[in-house]
Design goal:
The structure holds 3 protein chains of 3 kinds. By secondary structure, chain A is mainly α. Chain A contains 12 helices and no strands. Chain B has 8 helices and no strands. Classes of the chains: A mainly alpha, B mainly alpha, C mainly alpha. Chains in contact: A-B, B-C. The interface between B and C is large, with 47 and 53 residues.
């Protein structure tokens, strides 16, 4: 009995640690992305700490809201941040262990993602400005195309494991590395990677550093936010980016993640897990930023084509996982 | 190589072929099909080699080499390279009547249809292929049977590419995917047709691609277009009833 | 013409045949390598005389070897096997060789053109025609179905540039569509052969050898074998011009030079159909034969329908002849589907007679084009009076094709209908007769408008060089071919030979 309680406590500790690590690391990851991009473009760059400095600066400022904005304007940032935190707790980044009562199930995770997405969309609409509405409509269009891909891709990964929870999926790949190179697995991860790029508003779907009104999506929605609200929205978005990147990294290279084990992960395993996930995510961030430098943003009309492609890959992964393993 | 390793390798290579087929369907009109085609060709060659090891047939090593060179290097190169207008056996009759050749207009943006229907169609075709291959999978023993639907899928996707391709290059790419699908089916289902047939088939495919390439450049000359990937074949509507 | 001319020679050779086992294989190799050597000679020598006659020589070689081989293997003779079993001449192969040789001789002799031989690209033309012949011979004599496939694909490759020979937009368009559709169709046939091979492999004896499959009858998995045979039949039927896979045919036939159109229409279709016949035989031996029979029946009737609809509305002479080829291949397919001995014998004679008549008519159509400068039906009038050396043979060829009584086609079509009624295909025969009538009316009307009646007032008095050449071109090949087309079906001595050919493809009595 006491052993079970101890295991429970260790799991909770692990999850809290994982959340804290992700929250601390997310702005750094954004810093890495910006810095790599700057170096490729021949600029000195702002340094890895700048996103943190921005966050602190914004958090100190009082939010100003447009006249005519409603309760959504202050609820939505909280929801966005909350969904980001929940994702950080649920998705296996540092450890695959998770609280038994709140399973990191595929459908739960996708729903949490979607809550954040919808909150952000409502936030863009709330002030009633033209840009915000435009950004929201684009954002939700993309989201509607992305969610099926995410569902299908993770479903394809879940077939060999027999569970739709993310933790066992990552553990299964750790136990049987052959699955990492199995065709269905490869297709699913590629599809998931494209979906993540779209979901986190990166090139070629959206340009995170543009304020060109014809092309921006994410930036258009947060134009009306300021101060603490903006800080919450930005941190929430960064959390999504970090968690999803870390998930893809863990699926491709599952080694180093702290497994649930018998009685929850021990401290050495957790320490290794933290180091591993930081290294893996930073590495994938470098890859992502490098790829963004060499790619042009797609015209909005071409985005559905890209997302259909990733959907087809995910679909093939599902059929493939039943037939060729 | 144990049979487990062999079937894993076969699955991986077959998956790679399928992935490249989807990439080719996904490809925008301006991007080169050479890379995916080459990868597909090498994957096929690898498949042959794996089967050769698994079944202990050294002759398949030779075939793997042939397939690798032909489908991994020669054909992808041929597809993207236009024979130069002046040289080669094509020597189109343009020299006789240069006045009738329209000025070459290169569109700044390559027009392209949306690939969405083709991509979704490809997904559907893969399912059809899995269903169609089921009776064949039953009679094929060994490590290769389960990957057999990939060959069928490649045939169907190649068909779709060929039927929807608007430019000579896209149709050629469809033809090659179709051919790779047939070859994949052949190796997976039978461990390779007799060597003399294999040689003849390879030679035929090479010649067909050469012929189509020469005809493609003649079409470019006759219809006076120089868009990347060849003339828009929708212009070919002079012959009808 | 074939058997008439070569009978004495063939009889002599047949005597040598039984004497020594060397003669038969040697003849196979001569038939195969003769055209290839002719092509090589054109490439190496480049003399005008060589360029001019090489394809005629090649056709004659094929005809002579084919006649001798047929005389040797028919009437109970053993099949000639060589190249380690890859090549095998049974009565069907011998008969198809005769068809190839006779029709090719008509087309190449009738298509002799000193003007083309003088031109820069004349050498290439003759080389390709010779290689085309070699590929067709290989397709016919190959026993291994894989080799047959390679050869059939080879015919596409060698004819691609012949179809586009005239240059210009229409010719390259036709060539492109032809190569793409034919390669894909034949590719499907290869997929079918692969499945067949997989089925035999699962049955413990991997082989694509036709004769081994027919004699050993391996216990193949029926589903896979049926899939394979159907795909193979479908693929080869594409090349045989059966609807709905016929789309390449009118374009290619209308744009190719006239002798090439004649070759493609008269023999290429027959050679491809020979492959279909072998597939059908396999289906009957290994399975119940129903699948391929249905395919042939549906394809045949559909071809007749397509031809009937489009012949009536046709405005171009060469396209009309192309649709007439689709019509005749449809008849042949229906006959193969009926499958009793009478129907199969009628089908075989039909292939030969149609080939001779079609090659002659295409040759004459080429001369019409040279003289009138157009193949538009509406622009040609009163040929018989304005240019009797062209008008009369053209009319004779067209009438033969239409199957009016002196023509062999009349007898074969009548035999087909009788055979069909006897085997319980009454409804199909009713459809066949109606569609034949439609084609007859449509094509007859066009031919009469072009040949009979008053000629259009002559525009220019100065005939072009091509027209002069066409007006003085030899009529003997066309006359011989048409005479043979009318007499062959009546030649009773051929009955024994036909019987042995029918036995190969298994006609039930």
């Amino acid at each position: 009995m006491s052993g079970e309680v101890a295991g429970e406590v260790r799991v909770v500790v692990a999850v809290v640690l994982q959340t804290v690590v992700v929250v601390v690391a997310a702005p750094f990851l954004v810093g890495v992305l910006r810095q790599v991009r700057a170096r490729w473009e021949g600029r000195v760059g702002q340094g890895l700490l700048q996103p943190w400095r921005d966050l602190v600066k914004l958090a100190r400022k009082e939010p100003l809201q447009a006249s005519g904005s409603t309760v959504v304007a202050w609820v939505a940032p909280v929801v966005v941040l909350g969904s980001g935190l929940l994702l950080a707790a649920l998705v296996p980044t540092v450890t695959t262990a998770g609280p038994a009562r709140l399973p990191a199930d595929l459908f739960v995770v996708v729903s949490v993602l979607l809550v954040g997405t919808v909150a952000l969309g409502l936030l863009g609409l709330d002030a009633g400005s033209a840009f915000g509405g435009m950004g929201s409509s684009r954002h939700l269009t993309i989201a509607a195309l992305v969610e099926p891909t995410v569902l299908l891709a993770v479903y394809a990964l879940s077939v060999p494991v027999g569970s739709t929870a993310l933790g066992p999926i990552v553990e299964g790949r750790l136990a049987d590395p052959g699955r990492v190179v199995a065709p269905a697995g490869v297709l699913a991860v590629v599809a998931l990677a494209i979906a993540v790029v779209a979901e986190t508003a990166r090139i070629p779907v959206d340009n995170p550093s543009t304020h060109l009104e014809l092309t921006m999506v994410h930036e258009a929605m947060v134009l009306e936010s300021s101060g603490r609200d903006l800080a919450a929205v930005e941190l929430g978005s960064w959390l999504r980016l970090s968690v999803l990147l870390a998930l893809v990294a863990n699926l491709v290279v599952p080694w180093g993640v702290a497994t649930a084990g018998d009685g929850g992960p021990g401290l050495p395993a957790l320490a290794l897990g933290v180091v591993a996930v930081v290294v893996k995510t930073a590495a994938s961030g470098v890859v992502l930023a490098t790829a963004e430098v060499f790619m042009a943003k797609l015209r909005l009309f071409r985005v559905p084509e890209l997302l259909t492609g990733s959907f087809v890959l995910a679909f093939l992964a599902v059929t493939g996982s039943y037939v060729i393993g | 190589m144990s049979s487990g390793d062999a079937s894993q390798a076969v699955a991986l290579l077959a998956g790679l072929e399928l992935l490249t087929a989807v990439l080719l369907a996904w490809r925008g009109p301006a991007s080169s099909p050479r890379g995916p085609l080459a990868v597909q060709g090498f994957a096929l060659a690898g498949l042959v080699a794996v089967i050769g090891v698994a079944e202990g047939e050294p002759v398949l090593w030779l075939v793997a080499l042939l397939v690798g060179v032909l489908k991994g290097v020669v054909l992808p190169t041929l597809v993207v390279r236009r024979p130069s207008r002046a040289a080669g056996p094509a020597a189109p009759p343009a020299a006789d009547r240069p006045a009738t050749v329209r000025p070459v207009v290169r569109p700044a943006v390559v027009r392209g249809r949306s690939r969405v229907p083709l991509l979704l169609g490809a997904a559907g075709l893969v399912v059809v292929a899995y269903l169609a291959a089921r009776p064949v999978t039953r009679v094929v023993t060994g490590a290769t049977g389960q990957a057999l639907p990939v060959g069928f899928a490649l045939v169907l996707v190649g068909f779709a590419l060929l039927a929807t391709g608007r430019r000579s290059q896209s149709q050629l790419v469809g033809f090659l995917v179709l051919d790779n699908g047939i070859a994949t089916t052949a190796f997976l289902a039978t461990g390779g047709v007799p060597l003399v047939v294999e040689l003849g088939v390879s030679l035929d495919v090479l010649l067909v691609v050469l012929v189509l390439q020469v005809l493609g450049s003649r079409i470019d000359t006759a219809f006076g277009a120089g868009a990347p990937g060849g003339t828009d074949l929708d212009q070919l509507r002079e012959l009808h009833d | 013409m074939a058997a008439v001319l070569t009978a004495p020679l063939a009889a002599g050779l047949a005597a040598g045949f039984t004497a020594g086992p060397v003669v038969g294989p040697a003849l196979v190799w001569v038939a195969l390598l003769g055209p290839a050597l002719c092509a090589l000679a054109v490439l190496l020598l480049r003399r005008r005389a060589v360029v001019l006659v090489a394809d005629v020589v090649a056709s004659s070689v094929v005809l002579l070897c084919g006649g001798a081989l047929l005389a040797g293997v028919a009437d109970g003779g053993a099949a000639v096997v060589t190249a380690g079993g890859l090549l095998r001449v049974d009565p069907l192969a011998g008969y198809l060789l005769v068809v190839v040789g006779a029709v090719a001789l008509t087309a190449t002799w009738g298509g002799l053109s000193p003007g083309r031989a003088r031109s820069r690209r004349g050498g290439r033309y003759t080389t390709l025609v010779c290689l085309f012949l070699a590929a067709m011979v290989l397709a016919v004599v190959a026993d291994d179905l894989g080799v047959t496939w390679v050869a059939v694909e080879g015919t596409t490759i060698t004819t691609a540039f012949l179809v586009g020979f005239a240059g210009g937009r229409r010719a390259v368009e036709a060539a492109w569509k032809y190569v793409v559709l034919a390669s894909v169709g034949v590719g499907i046939a290869f997929l079918g052969l692969v499945l067949l091979y997989a089925a035999t492999r699962a049955a413990g004896d991997p082989t694509l050898s036709w004769v081994r499959l027919v004699t050993d009858r391996p216990a193949v998995d029926p589903t896979v074998a049926r899939m394979g045979l159907l795909l193979a039949a479908l693929g080869f039927a594409t090349k045989a011009g059966l609807a709905p896979m016929h789309a390449w045919l009118p374009d290619a036939h209308s744009q190719a030079p006239a002798p090439v159109s004649g070759l493609m229409s008269g023999v290429l279709l027959a050679v491809a159909f020979g492959a279909v016949l072998r597939i059908q035989r396999l289906d009957a031996v290994l399975l119940d034969g129903a699948a391929v029979r249905t395919l042939l029946l549906v394809g045949g009737l559909l071809s007749l329908l397509v031809a009937a609809v489009l012949v009536v509305t046709q405005r171009d002479l060469k396209r009309m002849l192309a649709y007439s080829s689709i019509e005749h291949m449809g008849l042949v397919a229906v006959a193969a589907a009926v499958g009793n001995r009478l129907a199969l014998a009628a089908m075989l004679v039909h292939l030969l007679v149609h080939g001779l008549a079609k090659a002659s008519t295409f040759v004459m159509a080429g001369r019409v084009l040279a003289v009138e400068g157009t193949t538009a039906i509406a622009d040609v009038h009163g040929l018989v009076r304005s240019a009797p050396r062209i008008g009369i043979p053209f009319l004779a060829g067209a009438v033969t094709l239409l199957g009016l009584p002196p023509s062999g086609l009349f007898l074969t079509e009548a035999a087909l209908v009788v055979a069909g009624l006897r085997s319980g295909y009454g409804w199909a025969m009713a459809i066949v007769l109606v569609l034949l009538l439609v084609v007859f009316v449509g094509m007859g009307r066009a031919v009469i408008a072009m040949t009979l009646g008053a000629p259009a007032p002559a525009g220019s008095s100065e005939p072009a060089a091509a027209a002069t050449e066409a007006l003085s071109a030899p009529l003997a090949p066309v006359a011989l071919a048409l005479a043979a087309a009318c007499l062959l079906a009546l030649a009773t001595p051929l009955a024994g030979t036909l019987d042995s050919v029918v036995a190969v493809i298994g006609g039930a009595p």
